[in-house]
Structure to design on (615 residues):
């Protein structure tokens, strides 16, 4: 089985799901076509763009791999035309989004390790890849990013990165480690939504 | 005729116009001198800065071509001291802003092509160069960027980029193509303001 | 005396103080653990990250010097658990923040000069290093950045940079110049708080 092709294909699925999250938020805020496409691209690609700019891995992957931009723009158009249908598809979209979360965390962390970073900054960069696009998306509609306020989202990405780093340290085969890491983030995210888990709050607030 | 010098001169005109838009918004939000200068610099230069960071065309042009920073700071000071006069000059400022829009789209797209990017990401980067500064400017005063909500603005930049890419594909002489591309964006922007055109909205909203 | 080690040690103190400012703002906005850590990291490191991305000094220092990230995360945890105690320590935190302001302005300006930039863009980049993290911090909670609205903050950073550039131009020994520059920014910031000085506002507002 070609694991690299599988991961890349899944990455596009995650890109599409993230793009949908941007497009539907834009529709809710009554933005126009430009706003819908911009929020789709921001949600899908800004996390990886920030990662690449900080790493010096330029031109950023979002600019050299044409499929990423096309997928994000496609998600924007889908959100623009079918936003009412999408509102009835919240559960499947949530599942795809959780998949994207795990994939972006793992590929972002891997890319940082490939550039010679230590495990801790690589973990942080993996999380930033996974949640940065959503944060930019929310800032563009003048909202406090959801990832900072509620639910288990960044922590799921962190767990995915931890599984990746630990597995590679132990010398396990990379394809299996990558899949396990994506699965860990995905499962934690889904379970936390089902159970209504939240990240801890400061004591006494 | 020296077309490069002409385009560079026009670029400074656009930089000044964009800087004025940042300064006047800052005055409206009752920011202090620092805020006025910061919004002028952000509006005039942040689009190109983001473009260069994503391309890896570093240090960013805004840091190496001293005229850009001086022009943006000059626009900030002009807005700080003469904001009341500028309120009476809305039409000329709008014309200069439309010129800057076309110029930034075309030079941003060209710079992306020069770095070996494909036409689609180059177009997107041209649009980002043209509208990114205004978006950062609006985010800094906690507003949803105007470019995402109303009027024909990013679409005019996109049309300018399309003319550039198509003209170069056809092998036409670059100076003429660049001028035609700037003119296309400029005219579409001006006509859309005169006619009150807006970008389309999602169906059913 | 080893001046480099002294400046680096002080830099971590500044990083910690900036991180505390992010953490306490996050607690005030009722963010969760992720939000507190994210705002601590943003406040402490985003200014330097933006500087490095624009310079092309990548991977950014915040990713390669592990102490910076650990210090910022430590400040986040301290703010998360001890936010009530920190509210009673406003004056010491203000002093540390002013120290960080001067240090970040001077090290940011120096890094830009080392990359061959002219004095003016180096000054601007020093100021951006010093105030950029706080601006990102404020944008993430949907507030207009404080640095654009009130008090002498960016101007103190600018004065620190000016002392550095002037001292190096005059050929004075760099360690002494750097210390004097940090001190100038620090003193101006502290005095401006004690006296209630503000940056000037646009005439007629």
């Amino acid at each position: 089985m070609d694991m690299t092709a599988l991961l890349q294909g899944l990455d596009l699925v995650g890109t599409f799901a993230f793009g949908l999250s941007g497009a539907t938020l834009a529709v809710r805020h009554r933005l126009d076509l430009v706003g819908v496409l911009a929020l789709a691209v921001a949600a899908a690609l800004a996390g990886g763009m920030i990662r690449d700019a900080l790493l010096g891995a330029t031109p950023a992957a979002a600019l050299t791999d044409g499929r990423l931009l096309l997928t994000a723009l496609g998600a924007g158009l889908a959100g623009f035309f079918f936003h009412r249908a999408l509102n009835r598809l919240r559960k499947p979209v949530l599942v795809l989004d959780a998949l994207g979360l795990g994939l972006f965390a793992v590929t972002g962390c891997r890319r940082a390790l490939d550039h010679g970073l230590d495990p801790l900054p690589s973990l942080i960069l993996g999380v930033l890849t996974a949640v940065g696009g959503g944060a930019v998306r929310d800032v563009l509609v003048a909202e406090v990013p959801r990832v900072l306020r509620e639910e288990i989202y960044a922590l799921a990405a962190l767990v995915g990165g931890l599984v990746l780093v630990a597995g590679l340290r132990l010398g396990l085969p990379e394809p299996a480690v990558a899949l396990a890491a994506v699965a860990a983030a995905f499962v934690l995210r889904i379970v936390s939504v089902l159970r209504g888990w939240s990240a801890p709050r400061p004591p006494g607030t």
Notes: Chain A touches chain B through 35 residues (CB under 8 Å). Chain A has one domain: 3-195.
